[in-house]
Amino acid sequence: MFVVHTDNFKVSAKKLIIAVPGFPFEEITGDVAAEIKSNPLFEAILPQPAFKAAAIYSYPWWENVTSSHYNLTLKPLEIFRSGATCLVNIMPYSGRGPQGEAVIQLSYAKLACATKWGELSKLSKSVFETELKKAVQEVFPGMVIPEPLGIVFKYWEEVAWYVNYP
What we know:
By secondary structure, the protein is an alpha+beta fold. Helix content is about 25%, strand content about 35%. The chain is built from 5 helices and 9 strands, in the order ββαααββββββααβ. Strands 6-7-8-3-9 form a 5-stranded antiparallel β-sheet. Strands 1-2 form a two-stranded antiparallel ribbon. It has a two-stranded antiparallel ribbon with strand order 4-5. The longest helix is centred in the last third of the chain and has 15 residues, at about 125-140. The two termini are about 25 Å apart.
């Protein structure tokens, strides 16, 4: 049983989930922290690579995807999963720019797919963006996808954390 007392509340729980990476947690002291750090699962929390890319387009072309392969309407914050090109999680954002511009997350990937995009992102900007656009076209075959107004991305070699069960 875990119990936390504050000036105004007392909270108790049979299970405790700590949503922080293991490295910073090493600095936390106290009985509860010591008990958590002594658990073998604590040592199994490992870093993994992650990659995220987003693009802005002059209009939200993904709202009425029609091709000979399928019909699809992606709504804001609705995730479309595709492992075919390692883009993995594609998700339109809500909101529009002053001329109707729209943003879509082209990728949120981890592990091997993150590493693939991370390595490609080290190449020239034009080569990387060409590869990213080819991957988007492969996910939406038969669609005429406009040229993005801009693309932003970030690769983290060791940022996302997960438990590797022993």
